[in-house]
Amino acid sequence: MDPATLIASAVIIFILFFTFRYAIICWIRPFDTCRKCQGKRHLPNRIGRGTHDCRRCHATGLRLRIGRHLWNHVRALHRDTTR
């Protein structure tokens, strides 16, 4: 086996491993903490007094992972086309 083939196969295995790992994480824990409020649910007002609810997570502190969102979209597309 020449070095170029060995490196190419190692890169492919590396990518497949992390893709499979992310798919498992999306299956087990579909929600992640909100990136804007870091799961705190509230953000400080611009003036500096008080707080307001986070718009991105609707004050839950959780957001649907990108992979899970894509999976839900693909499943809905499949469901709608096979009816």
Helix content: 40-55%
**Count of alpha and pi helical runs:** 2
Low-confidence stretches: none
Strand fraction equals 5-15%
Q: What is the general shape?
A: flat
What is the mean pLDDT?
Answer: 89
Assembly context of the chains: single chain
The run of helices and strands is HEEEEH
For the sheet with most strands, the description reads: 2 strands, antiparallel
Radius of gyration, in angstroms, nearest whole number: 20 Å
Number of domains: 1
From the structure above, extract its key features.
two-stranded antiparallel ribbon, alpha+beta, 83 residues, 4 strands, flat
Describe the structure.
- With 83 residues, the protein is an alpha+beta fold.
- It has two helices and four strands.
- It has helices spanning 3-28, 66-81; strands at residues 31-33, 42-44, 51-53, 62-64.
- The strands form two sheets. It has a two-stranded antiparallel ribbon. Strands 2-3 form a two-stranded antiparallel ribbon.
- The radius of gyration is 20 Å and the shape is flat.
- The N and C termini lie far apart (49 Å).
- The mean pLDDT is 89.
